[in-house]
Amino acid sequence: MTTPVDPDHFRLAMGRFATGVTVLTTFAGGHDHAMTANAITSVSMEPLLVLACVEVDARFHDAIADSGVWGVSILAADQRPTAEWLSTQGRPLHGQLDRVAHHRGPGTGVALLDGALATLELRTTDMHRAGDHSIVVGEVVSLSSNDHPADALVYYRSRYQPLR
Fold first, then answer.
1. E-assigned strands of the chain?
2. Apex CA 115: angle with CA 154 and CA 101, to 5°?
3. Cβ pair 32, 25 in contact under 8 A
4. Sign of CA dihedral 151, 154, 157, 160
5. Which ranges of the chain have pLDDT less than 50?
6. Confidence at residue 123, expressed as pLDDT on a 0 to 100 scale
7. What pLDDT is recorded for position 85?
8. Do 153 and 77 form a contact (C-beta atoms < 8 A)?
9. What ranges in 30-163 are assigned the alpha helix state H?
10. How many whole angstroms separate alpha carbon 11 and alpha carbon 129?
11. Mean confidence (pLDDT) of the chain
12. Of 47, 72, 50, which is closest to residue 138 (Cα–Cα)?
């Protein structure tokens, strides 16, 4: 008989996997919605697909399901305060991007963060329930990357850190 895996030990083990830090954005119900995420990855080159994992109980989940479009901003190391702000649970929905420099993407109109290392706009193609999260798959409709990228922001051992 197999012993159940302790969720805290699982969290500790997965914390040893360094990931990039992004902000996901969408527009629904007359508001910008945003969240910090490190669970994104490229899926396919033909067509160009990206996935993100979003907690089902997060208000961003319903917003992304309703809108059908979303953005990914890959954060630079100096954007740590933005990552921290947009990962704060219970922050107000209205005006949450007021303190974050951003522009509207040309393909979908979602907010994309100024100063990001790269940005992508996506149109949702699939959502799959997976435990307490949904895997959201989107086709890339627009992208931009910084010609002179700065250091990246990574998440490692439960902390934001610069990658030099």
1. 19-20, 22-28, 31-37, 40-45, 48-55, 69-74, 102-104, 111-113, 118-130, 133-145, 152-156, 159-163
2. 110
3. yes
4. positive
5. none
6. 98
7. 96
8. yes
9. 59-67, 80-85
10. 20
11. 94
12. 50
Which residue is listed with tokens 């994104």? 40
Tokens standing for residue 75 = 């954060």
Paired tokens of 144: 């931009």
131 C-beta neighbours (distance < 10 Å), count: 9
Show the tokens assigned to 5: 């895996």
In this prediction, residue 31 carries a pLDDT of 94
d(CA 124, CA 137): 6
Find the radius of gyration of the CA atoms of the chain.
16
Model-wide pTM > 0.85: yes
For residues 118 and 73, give the distance between their C-alpha atoms in angstroms, rounded to a whole number: 6
In contact, 112 and 104? CB cutoff 8 Å = yes
